[in-house]
Amino acid sequence: MASDEFSGNYMEKHRPSEGWADLFPGTIRTISRPSEGVVDLLTDNQVLLRIQVIEAGMVRFRFSPEGRFESDFSYAVDPDFHPEPPSHEVVEFGDGVAIRTAALSIRVSRNGLKTTISDAKTGKPLCQDDKGFHWQDNKTFGGEVVKMMKTYQPGEHFYGLGDKSCDLNLRGRRFDLWGSDTYAFGPDSDPLYKNIPFYIGMHRGGTYGIFFDNTFRSRFDFGAEQPNRTAFSAEGGEMNYYFFHGETPLDVTRAYTRLTGRPGMPPLWALGYHQCKWSYYPDAVFRAIGKGFRDRQIPCDALYLDIDYMDGYRCFTWDAERFPDPKGMVADLEKDGFKTVVIIDPGLKIDPEYSVWREGIEKDMFCRRQDGNLAKGSVWPGLCHFPDFTRPDVREWWAEQFKELVGDIGVRGVWNDMNEPAVFEDGTFSHDIRHDYDGHPCSHRKAHNVYGMQMVRATQEGLRRFGDGKRTFSITRSAYAGTQRHACAWTGDNVASWEHLHIASLQCQRLAISGMSFIGSDVGGFIETPTPELYLRWVQMAVFHPFFRTHSSGDHGDQEPWSFGEDTTSLVKQAIEMRYRLLPVIYSTFWQYVSDGTPMLRPMPLVAHRDPDAYWRSTEFFFGDHLLVIPMTRESEEGRFLYLPDGDWFSYYDDAKPKSVRKDIWVDCPIDRIPVFVHAGAVLPHWPLQQYVGEIPHPEPELRAWWKNGTETSRWYEDDGDGQAWKEGVYRDSTITLEGSPTSLHLTRQWTGSWTPGYSKIRLVLRGLPKGWEALTVQADGTTIPTAPDEDGNPVAVLPHGFKALMAVWKAGVVPEPAAETETAATV
Ligand code: MIG
Q1: Where is the Glycoside hydrolase family 31 TIM barrel domain (predicted)?
Q2: Span 411-420, mean pLDDT?
C-alpha cells in the first residue's frame, strides 16, 4: 500500500481537531463583470465566487479561497459546446446579489456567499445552500479540501452518480468517486469503476441537476451524515459545479449532456447481440463459437477476444500459435456476419524484446513518480509501465498502435479494460505519480478519475483513424463525466446471482440518466455460473439494455446461449430474436440520445416524477419513449406486482390491456417472456429477423401502431447503419403522430433528412383496435389499400415506403363488457 498520506482518505483522518479547521467566505466587497455572462463576487477574506450564466437554465459556480483561479480546464466539458450567454440581469440588493435569467433566479447572500436558486417562473426554491461553500487548507499537499453543503427541499429525492450499485434513490446515502477495480462488487460496494459526479434532485418545487466538475476523489452525501443536508466535497481542486434546471428530470440529463457531450451514432451492428468470454482461444475455438450461432440460427453480431489472444499479454501483439492468421480469421468471421472485438489493457510489459514498450521508453510515453522514476506495477503481463494518457502526444502515439489491429487485421471494436487503472500490488497507482493533464501537471490524486477516460479517448481515435470511415465502437470499464463522447461501457465484474441481475438493472438505469446510455452488464454474470433460469431472465432484460453482451470469466462453465440445455436455448434464442426485430426501435432511441441527450433507459421515478409513489420504484424502467420493461429478478417468480404510470398500456405481446388500476397491478410472468408494456398510441418500427445486421441488405420494416383514443407521437430514425453520412443529414428522422377515436385511427408522418430507403414497402399492423370493430377501410395518401388479418387477427396493410398520411376507419361493433374487466390481473 502507498503510505498513509497518499492513501486518499485523509478527509476522514485529518479532522479539524488535528488543526484542519473549516473555513468560510466572509462578506462581499466587490462585484464585477469580467466578461459577458460572468459575475465575480469577491469577499473581504479573498474568496472569489465566479458565476457564469451559460444558458437560461444552466449556471456555473466556481469558488476560490485565494481570490484568483488557475487556468480553466476540463476533460468533461464537450469542446464543441459554445452557447451564447443568454439574457440575464444582475441586481444588488440589501442582503446580497441577485442574478436572473428567463429560467432561474439566483440570490447570493452578502455574508458567506450562500446561494438560493429558484425557478424564475414559479418563484419556488430549487436548491439552497446550508453551509454553502467552505474548505479546509490542505496541509499535506497544498491547495484545499473543498466542500459544499445544501439543504433538502421538502420531499426531495436524489438520483444519478453513474454506476452505483444500490437502489436508484440515493436519499440517505453517501458515496465516494474514486475509480476502482471492484471484482465481485455487491449492492453496497463503493466506490465502483466509474466516476460521474452528477446527480439530479427532485422535489415538489421542481427538478434540477448538479455536476461537480472536479476529478479528485470526491464525496457525495445525501443526508447520511446530517439528515436533510446534501454535501459534496473533493480532496483537492476547485469547488466548481454546474447547476441545471429542467422542466422534467430527463430535461436535466439533456442539459448535462449538452455540457458534457453525446456520442456519435454507433455502427448498427453494435446494437446487436455480442458474445464474449475470458477467453475464447485458439482460433478454432473462436471460429466454432461463430459457427455455433449460425448453426442454431441464434442472431449475433460480435465476438470477443479477451487477453489470451495476445502474446504473453503484450498489447497489440498476437499469440502466433493460438492465432496463426488473425487477418484471415477476422475476414472469415466478417464474411459470416461477425465483427471481431479485442481487449486492450493500459499496462505495457517491461520487456526489451517488445517493440511497443521499447518505443514507449524511447519516446518517453510512460508515467513517472514524483522523483522522476518510471512508475511500475504488475498486471497480467507481469511488471508494466503505463502510458500517461493525459498527454496529447501519448494519446496520439496510442492511437497509432491500432494501425495493424484495426487498419490491417480488420478488428472492428476495442474493449478497454483495467483502466481505473487497476494494478495488482496496490489496487491502483500511487498518488505521487505525475501526469501531464494536458499541460496542467499534477499528481495521480487529480488524474486518477480521468485516466481511463483518456485511454479510451485515445483508443477511439485509433479506431477512427484506421477504421476506413466506419463508425467507431469502443468499450470502457472506467469513466469520468463526458466519457460518453468516446465509448460504450459495461458495468464490470459482476456475479451470476439474482441479486446481481437486479443490480445490473439499477446500474444501467443510473448510468443512462447520468449521461451514459450506451451501457450493459455482463449478461449471466461474470463470476460463477448462472442457472438456466437466471441466464434466461438476464438475457430477457438485456434485450432492453443498449449494450447487449454475454460475458463470463470462463472459470466455472460455458456461458453461450446454448450452454443451458435445449429448452433454455430456444427461449434465449427467442429473446435475442426479439432484440433483432426491435432494432429499429433501439436505433431510433439511440438517435434521440445522440441528438438531444435523452436517456435510452428511463427510470420510473424520473418519468413519473410528479408521483411521490414512484420515487422508490426501481424495477420498472422505460426503454425509449413507449416501452415499459419489467425484468424478472427473482428465482421461480411466476408473476409480480408492478406499477403502471399514467396513460393507457397494452401488453407488447398480445394487446391484452390492463384495466383501470395503475399501481400494484399483478401480472403473470411465464418463463418465455418478461413483462413489456407499450403506450397506447405508440407506433414502433420492427425489422424482419436477421442473423446479423446487414444479412438482409434493405430490410422491409413493419410499423406496429397501437390504437389509442387520443393522440401520441413516435420517432423513427433510419440511415445507412454505418459510415459518416448521417452527420451530413443523410438519414430519415420521422415523427409519426397517431390520432385515434373509437372508430378511427389517423397517422401523419413528417421527416427530416435526405436518406432514401432501399426498400419500397412498409408493412403496417394495426393493433389493439376496440373489440368488435368491423368494416375497416384504410387509405394511404388518399389511395385505398387492402387489408388482411395477421395470425392474431390484427389488420395488416402494405404501404409505399414514403407514405405521409394514413386513415383507417371502422364501425364500432357491439361488445359485451367481460366480467373480468374490473379486476387488476393481466398476463403478459
Ligand atoms: O483482472 O481480461 O472486467 O471483463 O474478462 C481481470 C480479463 C481482467 C477484468 C474485466 C473482465 C475481463 C478480465 N479483466
Answers
A1: 263-588
A2: 98
**CA 279 / ligand 1 centre spacing (Å):** 10
DSSP H or E segment with residue 540: helix 532-542
The residue assigned the cell 462453465 is: 557
Which tens digits make up the pLDDT trace of 94-111?
899 999 999 999 999 999
Dihedral pair phi/psi, residue 293, rounded to 5°? -70, -50
Domain 3-260: CATH superfamily is glycosyl hydrolase (family 31) (2.60.40.1760)
Q: Could you report the per-residue pLDDT of 747-781, keeping only the tens digit for each?
A: 999 999 999 999 999 999 999 999 899 999 999 99
Q: Which residues contact 254 (CB under 8 A, 6 or more apart)?
A: 246, 596, 597, 598
Report the alpha-carbon distance of residue 436 to residue 73 in Å, rounded.
13
Please state the atom number of ligand 1 nearest to the C-alpha of residue 278. 5
Q: What is the pLDDT of residues 156-202, one digit of tens each?
A: 999 999 999 999 999 999 999 999 999 999 999 999 999 999 999 99
Contact by Cβ (8 Å): 486, 264: no
The phi, psi pair for 637, rounded to 5°, reads: -75, 130
Per-residue pLDDT reduced to its tens digit, 680-720: 999 999 999 999 999 999 999 999 999 999 999 999 999 99
What values do phi and psi take at 256, rounded to 5?
-60, -40
Distance (angstroms) between ligand 1 centre and the Cα of 493 equals 7
Cβ atoms 123, 204 nearer than 8 A:
no
* pLDDT, position 530: 98
Q: Which atom of ligand 1 is nearest to the CA of 477?
A: 3
pLDDT above 80 (res 614): yes
Residue 313 Cβ < 6 Å to ligand 1 = no
Q: Is 185 in the pocket of ligand 1 (CB under 6 A)?
A: no
CATH class of the domain comprising 601-674:
mainly beta
DSSP-based three-state secondary structure for 781: coil
Q: How many residues does the chain have?
A: 828
CATH level 2 (architecture), domain 697-809: Sandwich (2.60)
Q: How many CB atoms lie within 10 A of CB 536?
A: 25
Rounded to an integer, what is the distance from CA 201 to the centroid of its chain?
A: 19
Identify which of 299, 342, 198, 340 has the alpha carbon closest to the alpha carbon of residue 258.
198
pLDDT tens-digit map of 453-472: 999 999 999 999 999 999 99
Looking at residue 634, its pLDDT comes to: 96
What residue spans define the domains of the chain?
3-260, 601-674, 697-809
Distance from C-alpha of 702 to C-alpha of 689, rounded to nearest angstrom: 11
User: Is-catalytic flag, 417?
Assistant: yes
Domains 3-260 and 601-674 share a fold: yes
Task: Give the closest residue to 654 by CA, choosing from 716, 706, 600, 606.
Answer: 706
pTM for the model stands at 0.96
Give 18's pLDDT tier (boundaries 50, 70, 90).
low
The three-state DSSP-derived secondary structure of 335-365 is HCCCEEEEEECCCEECCCCCHHHHHHHHCCC
Note the pLDDT of residue 725.
Answer: 98
Distance (Å) of CA 691 to CA 131, 334, 428, 694: 59, 13, 41, 9
Active site residue 664: no
Closest CA to 64 of 117, 23, 36, 7: 23
